[in-house]
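We append the chain.
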Amino acid sequence: MPYYRKYIYSGEVLEMHEYYSIRQSGVYRPRGKNENISTEMQKDINLRNTKKQVDRLLNANFDKKDFFITHTYEQDTTAEAAERELVNYFRRLNYRCKKLGHENVKYIAVTESKGRRRHHHIILKCALPLDVIMDTWGAGRTHVGRLDNSKDYQGLSRYITKDLDIESPKGKKRYKASRNLEKPIVVKKTVKKFVRDWRPPKGYVYVQHPDYVASDVNGLMRYARAIKIGGHDIAGGFGKDVLRE
C-alpha cells in the first residue's frame, strides 16, 4: 500500500500531510463496492475541501495591504440579482484600474444571507484609492477593514465560508475568485513509511503541531501546519526545538 507525503505551500504557510492510500498515484483503479461512500459523506468532504481551497488561495495572494470588505444591499434582493451586481462591481473596478494603468483586481468573494440581508464578504487586492473602491459599489452599505500582518488567514477564511453549506445552490460554485490568483504549490512524493520525528523545514515554525486526524477516504493521516519564521506575530512563542537544524 503506497505511503505519501505532501507539502502545500500557500504564501508563508506550509501544510504537511502523511497518509497511505489503496490507490497508487497515477494508476487508474476502478472503485470497488466497499470503497463507495454515502452522498452525505461526499458532500461533507467536498465542503471541507472547498474551505481549504479558500484558505490556501487567501494565504497565497493577500497580505496586510489588502482589504476585507462587506457590501450589504439596501433592499432585499434575489441570489441571481446579487450575483449579477457582484460581477458588475468587479468589472467596474477593473475598468477604473485599466484607465489608470493598474493591474486587474484580485479577489475572493462569498455571498451570505443567513439571518440578515444579503451581503458579500470580499477579500480584495486593488490599487485604487479606498474611497473609489467604496463608491464603486453604490448598492448599499459598505464596511471596510484591512488584513492584519499574520500571513496566516485561515481564521478569516473560515469566517467568510462559515455558511457555505447553507448558501450555495445546487450546481453553483460556493465562492467566487478572480482568475489572476496565484495557486498554491503542491509537492507530493511516495515514501516507504511515516517519519517518526517530523519537523518543519528550516526557516519554518509550527502553528499546528503534527497530529493524526481521521480521513473519510484514507483512514488515519498525519497533518501539520507551519509558517515562515517572522511571518506570524506569535512565532516567537514556539521553542527552537521544533526547527530542523
Remarks:
- The two ends are 32 Å apart (CA to CA).
- The beta strands are 3-10, 13-20, 67-73, 106-112, 119-125, 140-146, 176-177, 185-191, 204-215, 219-228.
